[in-house]
Amino acid sequence: MYLLSSIPPISIKASPVFEIFGLSITNSMLTLFLVNIILLALALFIKKGSGLIPSRLQVITESIFGFFNSSLEPAFGDKETARKFLPLIMTLFLVIFFANQISLLPILMDLKLGSGANLFRVPTSDFSLTIALALIVVVLSHLIALRIAPVKHVLNMTKIGEILKVRSVKDLTNLFLELFLGVLDLIGEVAKIVSLSARLFGNVLAGELMVLIITYLGVYTAYFIPIPFIFLSAFSGVVQAIIFPMLTIQYIAGMRASVKN
Amino acid sequence: MELEAVRLLAAAISIGLGAIGPGIGEGIIGGKAMEAMGRNPEASSDLFSKMIVAMAICESTAIYSLIISFIILFA
Q1: I need a surface site. Which of A80, A88, A101, A142 has the fewest CB within 10 A?
Q2: Nearest to residue A29, comparing CAs of A101, A162, A122?
Q3: Distance between A167 CA and the closest CA of chain B, angstroms
Q4: How many angstroms separate the CA atoms of A28 and A37, rounded?
Q5: A10, A13, A246 ranked by CB distance to B53: nearest
């Protein structure tokens, strides 16, 4: 095409940068490492400058803590269990938030390898990361329920206990209905994983591709036109970083409530 | 038809049909939120942030069809 003539190759898979002990490190892994370093530096910086009179960054951090605490408490009931889950929720929020916004750093995102692919790539635009996060969250919710009451959770999920309650032929239709609903429940768990990962991945990838295509569309659209799309991408990154932990809270609290007596 | 033409057509149809539902749904969410804000202007900021969260979850199915469209185009 005459437009988009010099666009770099777009790939949904992340391209490997180097190999170490047989594992290939991709460019999104490298960027995730960079996000980790930034988070660590930020944490140490806020800790050092904190005190009884809060600095500005401390105020922001405490307000984020307060926001997630106030959404944890109605879901879990009492304050102690809510406090136990706060580290997981805050970690999810911080990692996804900084990973989504790392594309705003000016020079890093344009470094290229010899093969034409980028050296750094937004981590959450790699499907592997979002599937990994979603798997962690859903498997964790099941493990928490299994730890509280294993037999009851398995019976809840597969509804095999209804077989023992059959007394007459009329109960048989009820049994088939319950088994069918049990299968739907199991499919629902897979749907949870797919929807959680696809939502985050799709939003971030769509933002990236939109900015890339508009930048390379022609020589006149490369300069001021991408700005609203970069705003849109940043805003949707923030919203997705809030939605992922909140859905995590709902899944874990739902599993816990279904096995608690 | 050639594969390349069908590929472009499939990507366009996927996102085109997939964006109809969430468009209507988000409009309904926004309308209800505006109505509630009109009844109770003090809860405006609270309602606004919850509306944004509800819209982002409603957007999900459009994002799924967008992912399918990207996979068809680029992979």
Answers
A1: A80
A2: A122
A3: 43
A4: 14
A5: A246
Average pLDDT, chain B: 93
Residue ranges per structural domain of chain B: 3-74
Q: Which of A191, A35, A45, A209 is nearest to A108 (CA)?
A: A35
Domain B3-74 sits in CATH at 1.20.20.10
Considering only A13-22, A74-83, A113-122, A161-170, which range has the smallest mean pLDDT?
Answer: A161-170
Closest CA to A31 of A100, A133, A117, A90: A100
What's the whole-model pTM score?
Answer: 0.90
Interface check for B66 against chain A (CB to CB < 8 A): the answer is yes
A240 touches chain B (CB under 8 A): yes
- Spatial distance between the Cα atoms of A50 and A54, rounded to a whole number of angstroms: 6
Q: At what angle do helices B3-18 and B20-39 cross, to 10 degrees?
A: 20
Residue A138 and residue A188 in contact, taking contact as beta carbons nearer than 8 Å: no
List, in sequence order, every residue forming a beta bridge with A23; answer none if it has no partner.
A20
Q: ipTM score here?
A: 0.88
| pLDDT tens by residue, A158-191 | 777 777 767 777 778 888 888 888 889 889 999 9
Alpha-carbon span B68 to B12, nearest angstrom:
10
Question: What is the number of alpha carbons within 13 Å of residue B22 lying toward its C-beta?
Answer: 18
- Rounded (to 5) percent helix, strand, coil in chain A: 75, 5, 20
Calpha distance A176→A163 (Å, rounded): 9
Q: Does B63 sit within 8 Å of A239, measured CB to CB? A: no
Q: Is the minimum CB–CB distance between B48 and chain A shorter than 8 Å?
A: no
How close is the nearest chain B Cα to the Cα of A203, in Å?
7
Cβ contact, residue pair B53, A206, below 8 Å: no
Q: In chain A, which residues have their Cβ closer than 8 Å to the Cβ of B56? A: 199, 236, 239-240, 243
- Is the Cβ pair A239, B66 closer than 8 Å? no
